[in-house]
Amino acid sequence: MGNGNIATGIKEFDRIAGGGIPEGDVILIEEEFGSVKSIFAQQVAVELANKNGKTLYITQRSRKEIEEQMHRYGMEFDDRIDIETTDKVTESWGNYDLVIIENFSISFVERRTKEILDLIAGLREMAATVLILSDKGILDRKQESVVRAMVDGVIQFRFETEGVDRIRRSIVIPKFSHVVDEIIPFKVNGSGISIDTRRRV
Questions:
Q1: DSSP β-bridge partners for residue 188
Q2: Which residues contact residue 51 at a Cβ distance below 8 angstroms, ignoring those fewer than 6 apart?
Q3: For residue 129, which of 14, 48, 10, 30 has the smallest C-alpha distance?
Q4: Whole-angstrom Cα distance, residue 72 to residue 5?
Q5: Phi, psi (5° rounding) for residue 59?
Q6: Taking the model in full, what pTM does it have?
Q7: What is the pLDDT of residues 93-144, one digit of tens each?
Q8: If exposure means fewest CB atoms within 10 Å of the residue's CB, which of 57, 76, 175, 183 is most exposed?
């Protein structure tokens, strides 16, 4: 921290993104379905903890489940990461460098668009950087469009089948503090997410 960005720990992603996640921004991280967006957010939290930064992780899952997932992908849970189950924005959230809201689309599927607007407006007033993790297609199209318009940036994890037994994964950044034209291929293994530098799109 200190250079205006929070590094993700994924060096090639940080290079392409201009240093990482802009500090103080509200970033929507989208995926069709799956756990890649959570793994990405956890890597950011661990990298931040290594630099003495604090993260608030809002989730419907237990601390044990988060720890087990992190361990599976080569990450160690750190005491600088606090787990909460509430989705109500409070002033105390501002005491953190990073706030991660997991399962956003599921938590807010029954909410009116106005409530979602108010939540994002409240998040933007905080000093913390916020990562909103959302499964595409759960909120209705209008709500998804409103969220994308309100946030400072959008990072999308995409995948497509390649042949009968292979998945091609890529990161697209349609909205950010600067224009990112690249489609970024990546892979997931026991060390988490890494950019697949062998193939560029």
A1: 193
A2: 1, 7
A3: 48
A4: 27
A5: -155, 160
A6: 0.92
A7: 778 999 999 988 888 888 888 888 888 888 888 889 999 999 998 898 989 9
A8: 76
Residue type, 105: S
What SS3 class is residue 201?
Answer: coil
Transcribe 86-148 into DSSP letters.
Answer: -----GGGGGSSEEEETTHHHHTTTS-HHHHHHHHHHHHTSSSEEEEEEETTSS-HHHHHHHH
Q: What is the dihedral of CA 185, 49, 2, 96, to 10 degrees?
A: 110
Task: Spell out a b/e string for 104-134, using b for 16 or more CB atoms within 10 Å of the CB, else e.
Answer: bbebbeeeeeeebbebbeebeebebbbbbbb
CATH of domain 5-195: 3.40.50.300
- Residue identified by tokens 């560029």 is 200
SS3 70: helix
| Cβ neighbour number for residue 160 with a 10 Å cutoff | 9
91, pLDDT greater than 70: no
